[in-house]
Structures are given as C-alpha cells and as structure tokens.
Specification:
Helices cover 70% and strands 3% of the residues. It has helices at 2-21, 29-41, 47-62, 68-82, 89-102, 108-123, 129-137, 139-146, 148-163, 168-176, 178-184, 187-202, 207-222, 227-230, 246-249, 265-268, and strands at 232-234, 240-242, 260-262. Strand 1 (232-234) and strand 2 form a beta hairpin.
Length: 269
C-alpha cells in the first residue's frame, strides 16, 4: 500500500539519526538496509511515496548522514536518469527540483562534475517550461554551489538564455535571483555582461518582470561595493547583510553587533 511506504519514508530520518548515535552497535545498518530503500523510493510509481522519499533524502543530506560514496554512486545516478531528456515529464520535474535543493548540501566537486552538466542541459529544455522555471528560480543557489569559475564558464551563458526566454515567468525568476548570480561573478563580468543584461530586464515588455527587476536593483547594485569597506556580504540563508564599519562599532552612535539585514529579492518573492 502506498500509504505504508509513505509512512515508512517519514520514519527513515529519525531511525538514521538513532543508528548514527549508536554506530558502534550498528556500524553498517543504515548503509546496508535503509539507504537502498530511500534510493528505490525515488522512482516509486506513487507520487506521494516519491515525495516522501525526496523529503527524507534532503533531511539525511542536511544531517550529513549520507556517505559521499553513496551520494556519488547511488543518489546522483538515479537523479541523472530521472532528469534525462527521454524521462517521464513528472519524474523529470521532480528530479530537477531535488537536484537544485541538494546542490547546497553537497561538495563543490560533486556538484560541478556530476550535476552541473545536467543542470545546464535542463536550462535549455524546450519541452517543459516547468523545468526551465525551476532552473531559473534556483540559479543563484547553483552558482553559489559551484563558485566563480564554473559560474562564468558554464552558467552565465545559460543565464542569458533564461533571461530572454519567451515565457515571462522565466525572466521574472531570473530578475529575482539576479543579485545572487552577480555576487558569484568577478567585477569585470558584473560590469561588462550582467549590467547590460539587467538593463534588458528593467526594460522588459512584461510589467511583472520589470517590477521584479526594480525590486532587485538595490541588491544588484550592492554587489558592486567593496565588501571590506562597505561591509556587505551574503549570509548562508541568501540574505544580504550589512556589517557596521569598524570605526562605528566603537563609537556611541552605533551599538556593537548591531547588524542591518536586507533580504534579497529572491527571498522576498
């Protein structure tokens, strides 16, 4: 029964945590028995079971309970199969969603070598706009996961494609994550490539795209500031934060540890 499999998936994370805490007694129980179940349920015929399996997998990754070898040899191959061009539409949408969510929890090497090529393919998926929409919405997170070199070499060309997509929702999603993408690039790329691209979004024919671009204008401009002097930085949760200058911290006008936090437009959407 699907309900039984769904309930089972919901119990996997707490069981895994228990086994982790009791590792001397159960050194291989999770990897031998539970992890294969999680992987198998990612391809279950019932969508509720698959959803429960995806949620369980993310919790396990977040808690650092999955071995690197299992990620590379078991989890990633399944996701690559599910997101292949000839895969079922429903499976493909779910796979790209889980790829984007897990990218921030994996090592940069794993993301760049195993998941980034497929992500770039999915950005150009001409069959399903839902797939491109997920890629656009999570573009900043993928850039942050792989770093500046891979972003400029592989992702920026795809970002240009998405920013000129015929579906206005795609362009809006790009405008919302523009600050996160810009923050990952060099000042030269920011000035010569991203600035003209941002102007095109601010001048877009769709008012929803223009509105999203104007909301991202301030955060985008902030990426041009020198972090050492301006105190601007991106937190792990994706928000833009401002540290008070050192000279002000010691003065009476600014209390110590008084940070001003501004949410990026990607989070505000």
């Amino acid at each position: 029964e699907p309900t039984v499999r769904t309930e089972l998936m919901e119990q996997i994370p707490p069981i895994a945590i228990f086994l982790q805490e009791s590792r001397p007694k159960f050194p291989t129980a999770f990897f031998e028995y539970l992890m294969p179940i999680v992987v198998r349920y990612l391809t279950d015929v019932n969508n509720q079971v698959r959803k429960a399996g995806q949620e369980a997998l993310l919790i396990l990754l977040e808690q650092d309970l999955v071995a690197q070898s299992d990620i590379e040899n078991k989890v990633c191959p399944i996701l690559l199969d599910l997101s292949a061009p000839d895969s079922d539409d429903e499976y493909k949408v779910e796979a790209v969603n889980i790829i984007c969510k897990m990218a921030s929890m994996l090592s940069r090497t794993t993301v760049e070598h195993m998941l980034l090529p497929r992500f770039c393919e999915l950005c150009s998926d001409g069959k399903l706009f839902q797939v491109r929409k997920i890629c656009a919405a999570n573009f900043g997170d993928i850039c942050n996961a792989v770093g500046q070199e891979a972003t400029e070499r592989l992702l920026i060309p795809k970002f240009f494609e998405l920013c000129s997509d015929s579906v206005w929702g795609m362009r809006k999603a790009c405008a919302e994550c523009f600050m996160a993408v810009s923050y990952t690039t060099s000042p030269e790329v920011r000035r010569s490539k991203l600035s003209p691209l941002f102007i095109s979004l601010i001048s877009d024919t769709c008012r929803w795209v223009r509105q999203a671009a104007f909301q991202s204008l301030g955060p985008f401009i902030s990426t041009f500031a020198n972090p050492s002097s301006a105190g601007l930085y991106i937190r792990e949760d994706g928000t833009l934060s401002i540290r008070p200058p050192a000279q002000d911290v010691n003065s009476n006008s600014c209390p110590p540890n008084n940070n001003i936090t501004v949410s990026s437009s990607a989070n505000a959407a």
